[in-house]
Write a structure and sequence with these properties.
homodimer; 338 residues; mainly alpha; globular
Chain lengths: 338, 338
Amino acid sequence: MENRKIKDELIYFNNVVNFSSTSLRNVPTREQAKWQRKTVVTLALTFLTSSQAKLIVWSKRAGKYEYSVTTANFLVETLKCALSLAALARIWNSEGVTEANSTTLDEVIVYPIPALLYLVKNLLQYYIVAYVDAPGYQILKNLNIISTGVLYRIILKRKLSEIQWAAFILLCAGCITAQLNSRSDHVLQTPLQGWIMAIVMALLSGFAGVYTEAIIKKRPSRNINVQNFWLYIFGMAFNAVAILIQYFDAVMNKGFFHGYSIITTLMILNHALSGIAVSMVMKYADNIVKVYSTSVAMLLTAIVSVFLFGFNLTLAFFLGAIVVSVSVYLHSAGKLQR
Amino acid sequence: MENRKIKDELIYFNNVVNFSSTSLRNVPTREQAKWQRKTVVTLALTFLTSSQAKLIVWSKRAGKYEYSVTTANFLVETLKCALSLAALARIWNSEGVTEANSTTLDEVIVYPIPALLYLVKNLLQYYIVAYVDAPGYQILKNLNIISTGVLYRIILKRKLSEIQWAAFILLCAGCITAQLNSRSDHVLQTPLQGWIMAIVMALLSGFAGVYTEAIIKKRPSRNINVQNFWLYIFGMAFNAVAILIQYFDAVMNKGFFHGYSIITTLMILNHALSGIAVSMVMKYADNIVKVYSTSVAMLLTAIVSVFLFGFNLTLAFFLGAIVVSVSVYLHSAGKLQR
């Protein structure tokens, strides 16, 4: 077991060295394959996330969820778990059970932590609405861009250049600008309790993301499907507990699938696939790429809405989109100078 | 005369070389003095410009100018001209009339060009209001940030790094964001003629600024007060023509100084001093510094208004201010990498 850890460390170290030296020599085929994989998972995440917001809105009827949201979350985790297991079964069939596609107990004990953090964050969501209205909450959620950057630096000890930090501040400012509307200024009247809760939620969400990356990256030789399986099984467990606490009566009286529609099914499918894409991005890229990917997805959602629903884009949206685009450019320009 | 030109070229070349090598060795006292002069004129411009907007608003009564604006412009040019001449007289007294503090006819013939460009731009201002409302015009005016950058690159052939270009786009987006209000979206409905006029006006204004810098920098050994005298004398002349065309009747019937108040006098004083500060920035820094300086002044004006008049700052203002601040940082960070 000690040997495997050393092997993992070595592979990880090699990856880092290979990655940082790509700008100095010709990119070899292995690096190209890695870069391609990184690009594919990032694009998949962006594409899936951009349709997510619309499906959530569509799944409501007259502005209300007719299904229990927690049952949908539970099904998302179950579906992801099933997909990981199916992928794993295929691998076991072809390669047999090896060190790379199985796991040990000491490895598993940390997997509940991200699921638990997300659960606490989701519970806080029910309390913050007492202090902030919905558009205000939408704006405050962008604080997790900053918290992710800070925790990424502290926990994963990966450095961002000064230009990249500037880009990250711009990403946050640009996302908020793009979402501005006539009622946005209300958020400035948020009481101190609301701000504290918003910051705590941003930290929880950032910490969960960064911690997941730490778990996944700690053993780079481990197959992603094994890692996902454990992440999702605990996601299922915690959501099951949440259903019992919050929706037990509703589920008992109206049934588990009450209020479900085709849109709900599509939404669950989309969430499950984008959840897997997030894990892939954590494995083959990092949290910073994830944050950029979901921010760009937010802009794409708005642009698609113009064509599908005839929404008008505001001047604030254009300005936010320009700032986000410059931020994306600066993030990669800042990387080259290292 | 050929000799003087060569001397000028050499001094200019030396300045450029000295400036770009400052990061490589200890900054000598001469460089320090230059840097100090640059800082002082930049701060003076920022300070004077930030009080300018308020004085213009104060000089109105019930939202209207009671004085003819062109007579005020004429007095601003006259005051600047008088101040330059006074400074020049002092220099002539102490140093005598030398090559550095006098001028030749072939040099003077280009000085009317900036004044003419500004006049055309100011005349266009009367026509653009048919297509754009006042807040929209305020927003479109920020286009001259971009036009100044582009013309600075093309005419003065001075390079900006890619990071500095990104910073410049951010400066424009940030300034517009900070000025957003509930009626800003109207600007998106501006008809094509309005956009064309706004772009032409931005180009005229950018061209006038860059051309002034080119004139002033062409002969770095020439005393700034000589250069200013010629710039301002043509400003006086063109404004006198404008008074004759537009306000002849009003001036004849009500008198030249009709509707003037203490505030109008303060405003003229402020405009004259900031006009001189602009020339100084062109001489000792450049148009890019001028644009940054006036953008930061715009933010300061808004912040001062909060304390003086109890205005509320909007979320858009904060976001714009963050983007402008990051842009200022990136402009200097981008410089260091050259």
